[in-house]
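Exercise 7. Given the encoded structure of a 194-residue chain, write a plausible sequence.
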């Protein structure tokens, strides 16, 4: 069922894919679908949760391997690992970054929980960098949200780009995130209110 969901949600879209079509593609009866899965929404969550779990596992491996590297290296390499799973092909990227948006309150709660995991990771890595003298010590909550937003927006653009020569790669996303992190963690000059 998960493979059928990836194929159909990733090519036709979640809202355009019927349960009947999913069942025909997966070669299961609709009765089995309802008994085992329950709903399209539950199947979507199972699919993105599987990708998220695999991506977080890769991310943890990279964090362990890059333990003594500077923050920008650690964060960029963890996003590279995460994106190598969630953007392994156009279907996966479409499902993970586009098709889950605005589906239902339940799916939105899954997205918020996933975002909190990444937010906590980036914030703790930024705080660790400040302790090591790599960054100015400050609150990193908004910075971490900005990084997540940038990655999500760039991944969405990667899915949408259809013009040859204008396609965005994971490497290009990581280059931009590196720049964002380096800029965001440099010593800042406060901006006076106008």
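Solution.
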């Amino acid at each position: 069922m998960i493979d059928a969901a990836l194929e159909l949600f990733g090519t036709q879209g979640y809202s355009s894919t019927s349960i009947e079509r999913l069942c025909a593609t997966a070669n299961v009866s609709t009765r089995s679908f309802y008994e085992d899965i329950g709903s399209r929404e539950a199947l979507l969550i199972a699919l993105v949760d599987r990708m998220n779990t695999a991506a977080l596992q890769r991310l943890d491996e990279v964090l362990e391997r890059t333990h003594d590297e500077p923050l920008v290296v650690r964060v960029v390499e963890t996003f590279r690992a995460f994106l190598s799973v969630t953007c392994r092909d156009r279907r996966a990227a479409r499902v993970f970054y586009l098709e889950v948006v605005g589906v239902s309150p339940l799916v939105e709660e899954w997205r918020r929980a996933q975002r909190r995991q990444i937010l906590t990771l980036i914030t703790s890595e930024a705080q660790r960098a400040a302790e090591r003298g790599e960054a100015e010590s400050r609150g990193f909550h908004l910075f971490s949200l900005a990084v997540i937003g940038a990655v999500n927006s760039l991944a969405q653009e990667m899915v949408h780009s259809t013009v040859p020569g204008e396609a965005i790669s994971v490497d290009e996303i990581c280059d931009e995130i590196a720049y964002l992190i380096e800029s965001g963690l440099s010593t800042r000059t406060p901006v006076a209110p106008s």
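Remark. Residues 105-131 form the longest helix (27 residues). Students should compare their own answers with the one above.
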